[in-house]
DNA sequence: GTCTATAAAATGATAGAC
DNA sequence: GTCTATCATTTTATAGAC
């Protein structure tokens, strides 16, 4: 019956619950129940809830960029790709019910933990580099230099995702896309 | 000895703890201990933890705009005032140790609650209107129309505050200010 | 209004059998 | 590696005296 291994099922269930209802509002008991595994199996694979959190962040990071690559693969042209980043985020908002960025959410609900910071920053750093690489390939209007344009697009997206979570709406990312279009 | 009333002391203590260590990571017991009041006094003034949360949001909203007015009062000129919004946020980041926006944090760590949404949205709506009023008074470069410029400044700020919380740094708000300056 | 004592449930984590 | 049973705390909230 079990298509997936126990460890994967634990991590998948925990990931879903951590995002949907929050890390602190998700108890070990609920993970055990919904993953349909034994209590000790969880603690065998993940010695503490913090270990599960770190695994969640790593898994989310991998999936995130995997989905990005898949989404971007058929899109040609650096300018089109930059604008497609906004479409990618809108698509994710819809799928994830506008609950915002996984990484921002975790930062907001956990206290200072260096291992958490390392992971969320690595995620955002990589996304900023992704934008920067595309910006350098475009022949944009030069209203802003490459670095400033990169930061502008990045901050517009981050702000729009945060407001999307607050208003449960794709409007802000769509507005951000139009603003971005005027600089490109 | 008691300079402030019991109800105020409860709300002040809860507010500090909700922001510093998170709403879900703050227990009623800790609030009682640190406010140095009796258990039943808390439940007399705030029938549930959710009532305390709503009072926290209302209080934070009032204080936020009160501090904004005080900060902006001596600053002359709409363009200077728009740029001063970024300085105001940097000043707050420093004071609050870069933990980000109170309202975004609460959205990130509580499940859908209409009363919470109403308050956080009212806060952001009011801030957007504040920006819009200033934008209309400026004689800006017209690279963007008033509505788009308003939304750009707003999203840049929101993104920068979110990244400030992630990187525990004022760099993003300062970068956002420079970007804003190039549109004004 | 404020107090102490306590309830009822949920929390993260461990022990020891198989 | 997986299981069940259980532990010690902590959680939000209530009861009843003063």
- Assigned CATH class of the largest domain in chain A: Mainly Alpha
Low-confidence stretches of chain A: none
Strand content of chain A: under 5%
Integer-rounded radius of gyration of chain A:
18 Å
Q: Give the % helix of chain A.
A: over 70%
How many independent structural domains of chain A? 2
Mean pLDDT of chain A: 96
Instruction: Kindly report the name of the CATH homologous superfamily of the largest domain in chain A.
Output: Tetracycline Repressor, domain 2
What class do helices, strands and sheet pairing of chain A give? mainly alpha
General description of the model:
The structure is a homodimer of 184-residue chains. The longest helix of chain A is centred in the first third of the chain and has 24 residues, at 49-72. Chain A folds into two domains: 1-47, Orthogonal Bundle (Arc Repressor Mutant, subunit A), CATH 1.10.10; 53-183, Tetracycline Repressor, domain 2, CATH 1.10.357. The radius of gyration of chain A is 18 Å and the shape is elongated. Chain A has helices at residues 6-21, 28-35, 39-45, 49-72, 78-96, 102-109, 114-137, 146-167, 171-183. Chain A contains nine helices and no strands. Chain A is 77% helix and 0% strand. With 184 residues, chain A is an all-alpha fold. Chain A binds chain B through residues 21-22, 24-25, 100, 103-105, 107-111, 117, 120-121, 124, 143-144, 148, 151-152, 154-160, 162-163, 165-168, 172, 175-176, 178-179, 182, and chain B through 21-22, 24-25, 100-101, 103-105, 107-111, 117, 120-121, 124, 143-144, 148, 151-152, 154-160, 162-163, 165-168, 172, 175-176, 178-179, 182. The first copy, chain A, binds a DNA duplex (18 and 18 nucleotides) through residues 6, 27-29, 37-41, 43-45, 47-49.
């Amino acid at each position: 019956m079990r298509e997936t291994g126990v460890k994967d099922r634990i991590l998948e269930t925990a990931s879903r619950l951590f995002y949907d209802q929050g890390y602190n509002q998700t108890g070990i008991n609920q993970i055990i129940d919904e993953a349909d595994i034994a209590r000790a199996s969880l603690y065998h694979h993940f010695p503490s809830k913090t270990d599960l959190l770190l695994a969640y962040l790593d898994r989310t990071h991998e999936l995130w960029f995997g989905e990005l690559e898949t989404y971007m693969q058929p899109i040609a042209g650096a300018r089109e790709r930059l604008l497609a980043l906004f479409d990618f985020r809108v698509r994710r908002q819809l799928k994830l019910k506008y609950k915002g960025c996984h990484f921002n959410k975790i930062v907001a609900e956990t206290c200072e933990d260096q291992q958490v910071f390392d992971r969320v920053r690595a995620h955002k750093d990589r996304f900023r580099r992704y934008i920067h690489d595309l910006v350098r390939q475009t022949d944009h209007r030069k209203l802003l230099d490459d670095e400033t344009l990169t930061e502008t697009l990045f901050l517009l997206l981050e702000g729009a995702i945060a407001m999307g979570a607050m208003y449960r709406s794709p409007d802000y990312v769509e507005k951000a896309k139009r603003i971005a279009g005027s600089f490109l």
